[in-house]
Design brief:
The complex is a heterodimer of chains A (364) and B (269). The two termini of chain A are 18 Å apart. Chain A is 72% helix and 2% strand. Chain A has a domain of 233 residues. Chain A is mainly alpha-helical. Chain B has 269 residues and is of the alpha/beta class. Chain B has two domains: 178 residues, Rossmann fold; 76 residues, no CATH class. The longest helix of chain B has 21 residues. The chains are: A mainly alpha (364), B alpha/beta (269). At the A-B interface, helix 1, helix 7, helix 8, helix 9 and helix 10 of A face helix 2, helix 3, helix 4 and helix 5 of B.
């Protein structure tokens, strides 16, 4: 909000409250929307679209984590559980009760939200690192116990619920190819980002930020801390449930190993890399955490296949055999360097770059 | 403002102990509507504990607190805020990552109505409400406290004196009936002290606000100049209460402060 180019004067508060305050920003955002709604699905190859779907799924899933950790200050290490709740609720409603996908998805989100509130209840009493234990409990109780042991047995389908092709449709629109999934993903990401950003500039979001920054002061200013913490858990679980329900569109079968503990940790990693307490951070983090491993994969293929490099370094083909380990190690290294040299995340760097170009070519 | 005899806040026989330390022992007093009531006393006398009890952060083991005739002893801090009790803190307790404007907006929390769904949609109801309250904040608070130039700044980056002022702004945004000021002048330079004292008088006297102030302060010059009545605490016990001259000349107070009968005016002037 702080920066405005010279010559732009607002006459109404509504102009000052708007997201896109200048024509330049409007143009920029229009270009972005044209790119994500038209250019990418029309001209990108199947591989790029499937990568984009993973990015979108990560954004949706990390949004709730960002809300809890970044905006409300409640640590969550079991968010995959709420994704799983959303995914399983949605799948079961569709397969058992033949409820349309859209409604099943929203119910999945609501159930995910309520389930999240259940594990958020201890936050009324405990703060900070102790909350890690209760949210980790969510992961193990939900996924490893309830879903694996009981929910998966419903309908006698075995461990994985396979979704017959053509089951998932919104009205006449059958979601079966990656391109359909892409469109659904883009719509959901835009809607969730809008909802999140709007919440953060109204009463509820400000109460969350207040609780994060100073809960005692927030309480003396009339914020019912327990209620708003639980609301944060509900909304985070809702986003998680929606993300999980969305992801079944690109899974042939829903099974517990899609929602393992590593994925919960991964989501926390996404917001740490992207920037805690920033919506940009969620998006940048998701891009980074998805694109860098893909890039590493290409790099290794290139190195092992090009004769020049193989002659230069004959040990390279072994990398391919050990690819998994090398990729993980390189990725871990990247994260470590990131935390050392960019502790505020990518969104902070983005902010700095924007500030630099706002003033360019002057230094202040 | 015109002093009334209507009792707004009544504190009865408060006992508060932390383990073996008796912080307050049977303190009772009454604050009349529209006055500036100061609590003074040496360090550790229990002044801040008293404010925390009124505010609900501490729950006294014994004693009762009435606000506008209603008992509030059992209420939680946010419920007391909804009744119109606001406060500032001795050590600044602002939301450091947010802008000045957002800090003040949070003070409007109890007056805002938008919920989860209307907040997520924003357009329409919530947008109108936000503009309305922005208008209130700009006209009544930012203008009064002269913080126009910093409204978009991040609070954590502001100098101490301005942070104190922002905290007062946030407390005022609640539109309180009574405001508890915990050492609003601590750590300020002379100019800032004069500004702050003027602000306190403004919110007490101006037609628009007419807010009752409970002031905890060490700066005797300011306390004696602006307050209507003063209460002195020492080691958790009330030792004097009355108009500033009465308290100033009270031998118990002089003894508590200086140990000897000497001049009480120890100020920076």
């Amino acid at each position: 909000m702080g920066y405005r180019p010279c010559g732009v004067y607002h006459q109404y508060y509504s102009q000052d409250h708007a997201w896109w305050q200048t024509k330049f920003v409007w143009g920029k955002m229009t270009l972005l929307f044209i790119t994500i709604f038209y250019l990418i699905p029309q001209f990108a190859g199947m591989y790029l679209i499937s990568v984009a779907n993973v990015v979108g799924y990560t954004i949706l899933a990390a949004m709730g984590v960002q809300l809890l950790i970044g905006y409300c200050g409640q640590i969550t290490l079991g968010h995959a559980a709420f994704l799983a709740v959303g995914a399983y609720t949605c799948t079961l409603l569709m397969l058992q009760l033949h409820i349309p996908f859209l409604i099943a998805m929203i119910i999945g989100g609501l159930v995910g939200g309520l389930w999240c509130v259940l594990f958020g209840l201890p936050s009324a009493r405990v703060k900070g690192f102790y909350l890690i234990m209760t949210t980790m409990a969510a992961q193990f109780i939900t996924v490893e116990f309830f879903i694996t042991q009981y929910i998966s047995q419903i309908g006698g389908r075995g461990v994985a619920f396979s979704i017959p092709p053509g089951t998932i449709k919104i009205g006449p629109w059958v979601i079966k190819t990656d391109r359909d999934v892409y469109y659904l993903m883009v719509i959901l990401v835009v809607l969730c980002t809008l909802a999140m950003a709007n919440l953060l500039r109204s009463k509820v979001g400000r109460a969350w930020i207040a609780i994060r920054d100073n809960d005692i002061a927030a309480e003396t200013m009339g914020v019912n801390i327990v209620l708003y913490k639980l609301l944060a858990f509900f909304v985070a679980g809702f986003f998680g449930g929606i993300a999980g329900a969305f992801w079944i569109t690109s899974l042939a079968a829903v099974s517990p190993e899609h929602f393992h503990f590593g994925w919960s940790l991964w989501l926390v990693g996404v917001i740490l890399i992207g920037g805690v307490g920033s919506i940009y951070g969620t998006i940048f983090g998701s891009l980074f955490m998805t694109l860098i491993p893909e890039g590493l994969k290409f790099l290794i293929f290139f190195l092992t296949q090009s004769p020049f490099f193989v002659n230069l370094m004959p040990f390279l083909p072994h990398l391919l055999e050990k690819f998994l380990y090398v990729k993980e190690a390189a990725f871990g290294l990247a994260i470590a360097f990131f935390l050392i040299y960019e502790p505020n995340g990518l969104s902070y760097r983005w902010w700095q770059i924007k500030n630099y170009f706002n003033l360019w070519p002057f230094s202040y | 403002m015109v002093l009334t005899d209507e009792i707004q806040l009544k504190v009865e026989n408060i006992h508060m102990a932390f383990g073996g330390v008796q912080a307050l022992m049977g303190v009772s007093f009454e604050v009349k509507k529209g006055e500036i009531f100061s609590i003074i006393g040496p360090n550790g006398a229990g002044k801040t504990v008293m404010l925390n009890c009124i505010n609900g952060l501490y729950h006294p083991q014994k004693g009762r607190i009435f606000f506008e005739g209603k008992e509030i002893t059992k209420l939680k801090p946010y419920q007391r805020a909804q009744l119109g009790i606001s406060r500032t803190f001795q050590k600044i307790e602002l939301f450091k990552g947010a802008t000045v404007l957002d800090n003040i907006r949070l003070g409007r929390h109890i007056h805002l109505k938008s919920g989860l769904l209307s907040g997520a949609i924003y357009f329409g109801k919530t947008a109108r409400e936000e503009v309305e309250h922005r208008d209130f904040i700009e006209r009544e608070i930012i203008d009064l406290l002269e913080i126009e130039h910093i409204r978009d700044k991040i609070v954590g980056m502001l100098p101490y004196g301005l942070q104190k002022r922002v905290e007062l702004a946030r407390a005022l945004a609640l539109n309180p009936k009574i405001i508890l000021l915990d050492e609003p002048l601590a750590g300020l330079n002379l100019e800032e002290v004069e500004d702050m004292a003027r602000f306190i008088l403004d919110i007490n006297e101006e037609e628009r606000w007419q807010t009752t102030c409970v002031l905890v302060e060490h700066d005797m010059g300011v306390v004696m100049d602006i307050s209507h009545r003063v209460m002195a605490l020492n080691f958790g016990e009330k030792i004097a209460e009355g108009t500033p001259p009465e308290v100033q000349n009270n031998p118990h107070v002089i003894k508590a402060y200086l140990g000897e009968a000497e001049e009480i005016y120890v100020t920076r002037r």
